[in-house]
Structures are given as structure tokens and as C-alpha cells.
Design brief:
mainly alpha; about 85% helix; about 0% strand; globular
Amino acid sequence: MSEIWAASATIGVIQGLVVVLAGLWLIPTILGAYPPHVPRWSLIFLMVTPLIIVGGYPGNLLQGQLKMVPFNIFRVVPAATYAAGLAVLWILGVSRLDVIVVIHMAGIALLFFIGYIFLRLVANPRWSWNAAAVRNLLAYGTKTHLGTPKQLRKA
């Protein structure tokens, strides 16, 4: 478990950096014609996207160990936070992009912290580096993601 944890965390950090770099280039290009607050809040949200990636791995590890109660709580946190925030905004009659983005980011941050708390309480992994684990996870992920389009073409 510890080797998988270290490998997935490393891969997640790298994935997060790639997403941020791509977003820094794409957002101004794609959203340049929108009012200035739209690309600005998109760039602010972009800085939270690594938490989505890295924050999802504790749930995957919990699910892999069949710890379904903490996994299910973990999965509901961001959506419940977002829904509750939107309900409060609706009741207050507020409809501002900045507030909505902050609520969404709060749900993601909560997911990240709750995921790592659950992982620590349930599995308590230690940092244990194993290059073979990284290679195996990358090979599995590549096979899984590249296998999907092949399957869709067969259908």
C-alpha cells in the first residue's frame, strides 16, 4: 500500500503540473473574448485543479481496499459542498461568478483534506518509493485509457 501511495502521489503531482501549464496557455487563448473576470476566475480555479487530481487518489486507494464507507463519504463531499453553497446563494439571491468559483474551490479543498485524513486513519500509508510501482501504475493507466477508444471503435 505504501509503495502505491508514494507512486500515485508522485504521478498526481506531475499530472497537476501538466494541467496547470496547459491551462495557463489555453485559458487566455480560449476565453480571451469573454469579459475580463471570466478568464481571471478561470485562472484562479486552474490553480486548484492539482488538488482535484491529487485529492482523488486517497479515494481510489480507499476503494481499492474496499473501505466503502469512507470512500462514499469522500466522493460526496465536493458535490454536497457545492450544492449547499449554491442553495445558500439562491436563498440569498446572490448570483456572482466569483462566489460560485470560491464555493467550488472550497469543496475541492475539503475533498483533498478529508481524503488524506481518511487515508491516514484507515490505511496509514508511509512514503515508500518504488520505481517499479510507478512504471506499473503508468503502464496500467496508459493501457486503460488507450484501450477505451479501441473498444469504442469496435462497438
